[in-house]
Structure formats: structure tokens, C-alpha cells
């Protein structure tokens, strides 16, 4: 089946003739078994609320089908999904390579938390190729962590090359696949061992729940992920799993609208005198565009723009004039967002040298002309503040 069909039908198995369209919310801590044999079967499937109920399994099955993996497990947030995936493969004395363009909380987990327990951490240029990664590999390297595109600066990574270098060095490749929603890119098909998403974003799609997904490429990898989550005591509320599954059903329709609006806004912004350059993975000027063209089937609603240098009071006037673009973290919901981000504070291997402020936009589902008018008013306010 094609993805548009998978996200509608997956995780909807029912044992009754008459049943609801959506799997019901099953909230539970204790699970009861009528017989000893049922108990033994439960040990291998569903046996305690922290390990999930039928609601969780439905979402996991659907994400597995979308990502094209062996098995999916859930985490209470995208960050927890990233962290647990890394922890599944490293111990004291091991080495992790992580992209310099990674989501900052993931970066901080590696350099502030893992290092406390004797794990070495190095960062690599997000545009690094196979030979570059191979040169950074050590005998104790266990994980290469990629995020493509980077969620602040949008470099698109060469995932097949990273996978080859990681595997030749005895490491696994973990990819944060949140930007694509699991719809526009398939890291496992490109050689990744694990694909992680902040389901909070496009999967849930309505800015009302936190959830993470971890999809493994093989049974061996899946076992390590499962035990990492088990030993961390990680769990997801059944209501959040239900919300994510409901959101997943409209993923393709929403993403296509996000894509259309983001491309139009990126083109419009690129013609503005206030903008030095737009950073959108589907534009030829974006670093790693050739990788996007090869590995992605489309683009989502998240992109960036570098403004020409502007005084802080004028930048504040821009943001304060926005009516439709909310000033808030996260993305992937139905609403448009705009935030001032600071890549220069989160880079080491590939320093960020742009002088002007970097704005990150998420194109929501509002009318495109209304969004342009909102930005037009904000740029006008910025210009007035500079006089």
C-alpha cells in the first residue's frame, strides 16, 4: 500500500463484526488475565500499563508501516525518544558522533549528561560526507546521530553515506526524522538503524500533546530500544497515543498544505529587501539540496530566513506586530509560528557566521494571503522602528 493508505488503515485491527472506526482509548495500569496460559501470553504482549495497551500498539503499528521499519516504540516526548535511542547503544567508555545541527536539547543531553558517565561526544559538520565521518570514527564509536534537515539551519545530510561510514566502523546510525513527518523521507530505507520522530509535531498535528516515536530497522535493534525504555521507566499516556493516532490519519493532507504554503512564503520572503537569504531544503540554495532532491519526496512547513542586520528594537517591533504567526516553540501544528533562533550559540564543528538574525518559520494551515499580509505588516513595523 502507498503511504496515504497506510496512515488511514494501519493500527485499525478489530476482533468484532461491529466496531468503531477509531481504536478506543484503553487506560490501564494493571492488566488481568483469566487463565495462567493467558498470563504467559500477556508477558510477551500486553501485561502492564507502563508497557502499553492496545491503544499504544495501534499507533506503534501505524508508525512502523509509515517508517518502513521492523518495530516502533513510543516515548513521552521527542527528546526522550532521541535520548532513549542513544542510550540503547552506548555505555561508559563509548563514543558518540552527533551532527552539529542537532536539536539543542539533544545536543545538551549528549554533551552535558552522557559525558558524566564516561561517554565521549564529538560533533560533526552536518554536510560531512562518508570520508569525513570515517575520519572521525574511533574504535569505541557506537552511535552516529543525524538530524536531516537540521531544525534551525536546515542542512540536509547525506544519510546513505553516513550509514555506510557508521556501519563500516561498527556503529549504528540514528536519524531524527521529525521534519519529514515520516512521510517525505524514509531513513531506514536509506540505511539508518533507527528513525526517531517528535510525534508532537506533524504526527499529532494539533499542538495539544507530547509524544515521541522510535522505529527500529531490525529485531536486534528493536530489542535494545525496548529494554532501554523499559529500564528507564518510560511511558506514554493512552490519551496521548490516541491523539497522535488520530492526528496521523490526516498527516498527508496536512503536510501537502504545509508544503504548499511554506514554498510560497519562502519564495515571497526571498524577494524582500529585508531578507539576506532564505533557508528552505527544497530550494537549490539550501546546503545539502542535492541530498534532499535524491532522498525526499516533498518538503514540510518548517524553514528559515536570515535577515539583514537590524537593531534589536526593530526586530522586537517585527515580532510584536505579528497577528497570525505565533511566537512559540515547537512546530508541526495547524498554526503558523515564527521565532528568533540563535544557531551561533549551538555550534562547534561548523560555526555559524551570519551577522543578521535568523528567523524560523512554520507555515500553518491559514490562508496564504493572510499570512503574507501578516508578515507585510510586521516588516512595515520593523521599518518604522528603524526611522
Write structural notes for this entry:
- There is one protein chain.
- With about 375 residues, the chain is of the alpha/beta class.
- It is built from 13 helices and eleven strands.
- It has a seven-stranded mixed sheet. Strands 8-9-11-10 form a four-stranded antiparallel sheet, covered by helices on one side.
- Strand 4, helix 7 and strand 5 form a beta-alpha-beta unit.
- The N and C termini lie far apart (about 60 Å).
CA-based shape = globular
- For the record, give the distance between the C-alpha atoms at the N and C termini, rounded to a whole number: 58 Å
| Structural class estimated from helices and strands | alpha/beta
What is the CATH homology-level superfamily of the domain at 251-386?
Aspartate Aminotransferase, domain 1
- Any idea what the CATH architecture of the domain at 251-386 is? Alpha-Beta Complex
The overall average pLDDT, rounded, is: 96
CATH domain class of the domain at 251-386: Alpha Beta
Features:
387 residues, alpha/beta, Aspartate Aminotransferase, domain 1, seven-stranded mixed sheet, 13 helices, 15% strand, globular
Please render the helix and strand layout as text.
Layout: H1 3-9, H2 36-44, H3 54-67, E1 71-75, H4 78-87, E2 95-99, H5 104-113, E3 120-124, H6 130-136, E4 141-147, H7 159-168, E5 172-176, E6 194-198, E7 212-216, H8 219-232, H9 238-248, H10 251-270, E8 275-279, H11 289-295, E9 302-307, H12 312-321, E10 337-341, E11 358-362, H13 368-386
Parallel strand pairs: 2-3, 2-4, 4-5, 5-6
Antiparallel strand pairs: 1-7, 6-7, 8-9, 9-11, 10-11
Helix pairs in contact: 1-3, 3-9, 6-7, 12-13
Amino acid at each position: 500500500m502507498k503511504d496515504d493508505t497506510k496512515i488511514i488503515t494501519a493500527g485499525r485491527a478489530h476482533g468484532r463484526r461491529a466496531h468503531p472506526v477509531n481504536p478506543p482509548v484503553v487506560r490501564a495500569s494493571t492488566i488481568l488475565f483469566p487463565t495462567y496460559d493467558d498470563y504467559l501470553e500477556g508477558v510477551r504482549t500486553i501485561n502492564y500499563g507502563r508497557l502499553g495497551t492496545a491503544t499504544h500498539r495501534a499507533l506503534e503499528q501505524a508508525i512502523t508501516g509509515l517508517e518502513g521499519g521492523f518495530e516502533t516504540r513510543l516515548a513521552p516526548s521527542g527528546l526522550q525518544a532521541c535520548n532513549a535511542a542513544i542510550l540503547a547503544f552506548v555505555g561508559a567508555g563509548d563514543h558518540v558522533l552527533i551532527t552539529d545541527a542537532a536539536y539543542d536539547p539533544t545536543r545538551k543531553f549528549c554533551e552535558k549528561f552522557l559525558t558524566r558517565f564516561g561517554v565521549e561526544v564529538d560533533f560533526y559538520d552536518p554536510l560531512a560526507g562518508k570520508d569525513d565521518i570515517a575520519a572521525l570514527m574511533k574504535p569505541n564509536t557506537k552511535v552516529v546521530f543525524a538530524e536531516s534537515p537540521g531544525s534551525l539551519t536546515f542542512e540536509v545530510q547525506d544519510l546513505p553515506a553516513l550509514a555506510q561510514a557508521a556501519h563500516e566502523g561498527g556503529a549504528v546510525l540514528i536519524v531524527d526524522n521529525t521534519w519529514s513527518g515520516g512521510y517525505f523521507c524514509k531513513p531506514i530505507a536509506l540505511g539508518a538503524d533507527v528513525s526517531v520522530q517528535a510525534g508532537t509535531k506533524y504526527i499529532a498535528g494539533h499542538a495539544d500533546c507530547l509524544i515521541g516515536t522510535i522505529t527500529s530497522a531490525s529485531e536486534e535493534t528493536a530489542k535494545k530500544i525496548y529494554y532501554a525504555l523499559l529500564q528507564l521507566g518510560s511511558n506514554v499516556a493512552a490519551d496521548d497515543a490516541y491523539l497522535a493516532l488520530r492526528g496521523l490519519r490526516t498527516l498527508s493532507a496536512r503536510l501537502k498544505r504545509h508544503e504548499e504554503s511554506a514554498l510560497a512564503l519562502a519564495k515571497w520572503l526571498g524577494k524582500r529587501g529585508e531578507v539576506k537569504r532564505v533557508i528552505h531544503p527544497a530550494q537549490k540554495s539550501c546546503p545539502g539540496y542535492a541530498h534532499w532532491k535524491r532522498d525526499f519526496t516533498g518538503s514540510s512547513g518548517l524553514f528559515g530566513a536570515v535577515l539583514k542586520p537590524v537593531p534589536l528594537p526593530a526586530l522586537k517591533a517585527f515580532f510584536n506586530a505579528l497577528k497570525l504567526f505565533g511566537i512559540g516553540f515547537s512546530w508541526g501544528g495547524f498554526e503558523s509560528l515564527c521565532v528568533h533562533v540563535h544557531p551561533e550559540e549551538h555550534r562547534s564543528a561548523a560555526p555559524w557566521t551570519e551577522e543578521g538574525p535568523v528567523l524560523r518559520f512554520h507555515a500553518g494551515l491559514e490562508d496564504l494571503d493572510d499570512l503574507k499580509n501578516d508578515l507585510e505588516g510586521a516588516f512595515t513595523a520593523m521599518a518604522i522602528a528603524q526611522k
